Amino acid sequence: MDQRKERSSVNRRQFVKGGSAALGATVFGMPWQALAQGVPNEFDGSKFQLKAPEPNAKSGGVLKYAITSRPPHFDFHQSGTINSLGSQGCMFDNLVRRDPRDSGKTIIPDLAHSWEISKDGQTYTFHLREGVQFSDGAEFASEDVKATFDRIAKPPQGVMIPRSTLFTTVSEIQAPDKKTVIFKLSEPRPASFMMAAFASGWNGIVRKKTLEDNQYNLRRVVDIPGTGPFKSKRRVENEIWVMEKNANYWNKGLPYLDGIEFYHALPFSPELGSAILSNRVDYARICDPVTARKAKDTKGMSTTAFYQSVIQGTWMNNKKKPLDDVRVRRAIHLSLDRPVLVDVVKDVAPMMMGGMIYPFSEWATPLDQLKKRLGYQDDTAAGIKEAKALMAQAGHPGGIKGLDFLVRDVASFKLWAQAIQAMLQQIGVECTLRTVVESVWFDDIKTGKFDLAIGAIVSTLLDPSDYFNAWYKKDGPQNYGFWDNAKFNELLPQIDREVDVKKRLGLIRQAEEIMEADPPVLPVSWEKINDIWFNYVKGHNPYEYFGIYDCVRFDTFWLDK
């Protein structure tokens, strides 16, 4: 069956569609604007059962899956990299989840089989499944959901969770009995936004006792008990993580696979491409475009490219001189030749140019308009001239020497860093590249041990209320440059609350103007992901994914061989 044409038999008008409070998104078949104004909603999915999209799916076999899997630690809630969730995700379930059979466009039941949303949009009640166990044999109950989301929404001291900004309006979480969880909101949000937040693949449920036993910090816990379709069997650092089937999984008939072997390979690397083309693995994620073209022309193989929920950026440390000067930051922003940066990695990673907003979303300034701005033009002469003037105004007519440029050890980042280093020299800015592994990069950027730093950060939703709060807001969990703009911080709550589409778009444009004048990050590029697999790998539909962080369960995968 052509997976691009697949549609499950579920009546989708009953489930959440869209995935964010984006233009045109719907929930239960109704416009999200209407829901935001208080239309009552409820859903009973107690009889819903997830199965593979193809008939007569076979059980058995071990999937060999190649993906970068060098986690900085093991607390996936605290993580912001696929190095964590890519291999760990299959061990956990969500409260609700995205349907893997339609590229995650629909939200379906998971540990919660039913739910209701109050008329005022401020109370979400979820009813949980009976008979669910954690991999350590403990009974799953509402206290585990409450403990998980209490930590996500309001992280304790010493814990940083990038998705906490999705739940800023959650004022209280109640567990009145073992199988009921109630979320109270201090003010309403669009129902599509909230349900998409709950369904994020990052928000897997962990056991309350596991959190308590580890002082609510799971960074050093390799095998975190989950309720998911697979459990950890064996792990070798930087080589392989072997998962085995959870024989007590609550969704009878799933998973089909006996296990998964996650082989570590760096994104876009020749080693990753070689592994899939030689059939040493069955499926490979984040492959380079050259390998994807070869796979497309190879009988028995398939490939696709989909948008990734990531910005490739360079952060400037606003706490350090001279980068604490907005004129210097704006000058550096204008000095980048973004069309060239896309071209530099064309054979390594599929990229596209964009500004501070997802360029493929309805909220973005159209590309033809964006390319008229300084910093995005094909001819960079005007941008460089303005950048030099700004440097002189800031007291640096001769430039700046000795900046520490922190670089993640990934092929695309290393290429970009060299190109950016050369571009900055045009305005007299000189820096030294310091390439480090994933864990060191995250540690150094969080502690401010850098001047410039190139890497990538992720969002959960396309909606600006997600990533504006996480990436750009003062003290946002992924505001790695420590950016603090009073006008932006004052405008952001208005964006979050506004349910009128035209008014909200106007506010977003105001925020964009602020960020162009005072850049919180240097947008380097926006990404697509190449997946490659052999056609005997069934039960998945990656053609229209938004990102690689939601459909990470593998419970519907099966091998037709």
Give a quick summary of the entry.
The chain has 16 helices and 23 strands. By secondary structure, it is of the alpha+beta class. The protein folds into 2 domains: 3-226 and 535-559, Dipeptide-binding Protein, Domain 1 (Dipeptide-binding Protein, domain 1, Alpha-Beta Complex); 309-527, Dipeptide-binding Protein, domain 3 (Roll), CATH 3.10.105.10.
SSE diagram, text form:
Elements: E1 16-17, E2 26-27, E3 30-31, H1 32-36, E4 41-44, E5 62-67, H2 82-88, E6 96-98, E7 106-109, E8 112-117, E9 123-128, H3 142-153, E10 170-177, E11 180-185, H4 191-199, H5 208-213, E12 230-236, E13 240-245, E14 259-264, H6 270-277, E15 283-285, H7 289-296, E16 301-316, H8 326-335, H9 338-344, E17 351-352, H10 367-370, H11 381-393, E18 400-408, H12 411-424, E19 429-436, H13 438-446, E20 452-458, H14 464-472, H15 486-497, H16 501-517, E21 522-534, E22 537-538, E23 558-559
Parallel strand pairs: 5-14, 5-15, 18-19, 18-20
Antiparallel strand pairs: 1-7, 2-3, 4-8, 6-7, 8-9, 9-11, 10-11, 12-13, 13-14, 15-21, 16-20, 16-21, 17-21, 22-23
Helix pairs in contact: 6-7, 8-11, 14-15, 15-16
Describe the model.
- The protein is globular and about 70 Å long.
- Strands 5, 12, 13, 14, 15, 16, 17, 18, 19, 20 and 21 form an eleven-stranded mixed β-sheet that branches.
- The relative contact order is 0.17.
- The longest helix has 17 residues, at 501-517.
- The protein folds into two domains: 3-226 and 535-559, Dipeptide-binding Protein, domain 1 (Alpha-Beta Complex), CATH 3.90.76.10; 309-527, Dipeptide-binding Protein, Domain 3 (Dipeptide-binding Protein, domain 3).
- It has 561 residues and is α+β, with helices and mostly antiparallel strands.
- It has 16 helices and 23 strands.
- It has helices at 32-36, 82-88, 142-153, 191-199, 208-213, 270-277, 289-296, 326-335, 338-344, 367-370, 381-393, 411-424, 438-446, 464-472, 486-497, 501-517; strands at 16-17, 26-27, 30-31, 41-44, 62-67, 96-98, 106-109, 112-117, 123-128, 170-177, 180-185, 230-236, 240-245, 259-264, 283-285, 301-316, 351-352, 400-408, 429-436, 452-458, 522-534, 537-538, 558-559.
- A hairpin with a 3-residue loop joins β12 and β13.
